[in-house]
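User: For documentation purposes, I need each entry recorded in a consistent format: the amino acid sequence on its own, followed directly by the corresponding structure tokens. There are two entries in this batch. Please keep commentary to a minimum and don't merge the entries.

Assistant: Recorded as requested. Entry 1:
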Amino acid sequence: MDLIVFLVLLALGFFFGRMAESRHYKRIRNRERAYRRLLVMPQRIPPIEFARHDSTLVTGSVVISVDYFKTVAAGLRTLFGGRVGAYESLLDRARREAVLRLQEDAKRVGADAVYNLKFETSRIGQNAGNALGSVEVLAYGTALMPTQAMREQRIAQRNQAH
């Protein structure tokens, strides 16, 4: 009886986890297309064309939980060693979602680009025992916004073009 419950939970974890991950990746790809014009770079020093821009800190944070199937799959992997592919997609989704939220924050402040992108990762949910539980990824960087004079100049150039 315990084996049947275990197998049912495993199958449910696989099915619903796969479905949730698929939907999340679809939303991520759509939002990445929408934000692809906003530069996000890991370099510490921006190019000279951004030297006169204003700057501010922008952040994006996300917490993603691991499903039951991935927990079991990762547990089995500890027996044999090697890559834990079940967690790789979890971390990939978390990093990409954190960058998207950072880009949303940068867009909110009117940024042209984000430089000095960094990540912080932490484990949340100690109730999962030795398993991962949930992971938090924080993406942060320096948003570079045009000054008021630069914005007025851009508006004037657009008006002349029309």
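Entry 2:
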Amino acid sequence: MGVPKQEECLCGGGPILVYACSGGSNVGQITNEVAKMLAMSGRARMSCAAGIGGHVSGIVESARAAETSVVIDGCHLACAKKSFEHLGLKPAIHVVVTDLGIKKSYDLNSMQKEEVDLVLSHVANLLPAPLKVKI
């Protein structure tokens, strides 16, 4: 007789890392908000796109070890994705907020809840299903 087996969700981070461009526009701020929401929900762990661009060794190694890397860019400039590519990395999932019909503005207060919900739903639908294992 031992400890009863429990089912534990392993979707709390680690294998799925999410990177937001966090640029200086409404769509950049949407990327950050969506990444935060994914992390707070336990669907992914938020990491640092600036750390990728800055070649910070621990952040780069985490990106290389991730099972799934999700990069969310605000616009077609795709700065976060280009930081990945500069290191020879390719995100498994890449989303551009303006491709979802959201217009870029430099008014940082123009981010709308409906826009965040749209991007969050889109990214969440692209993620692998949460993994449940018995321990």
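Summary note for entry 2:
Residues 59 and 106 are 29 Å apart (CA to CA).
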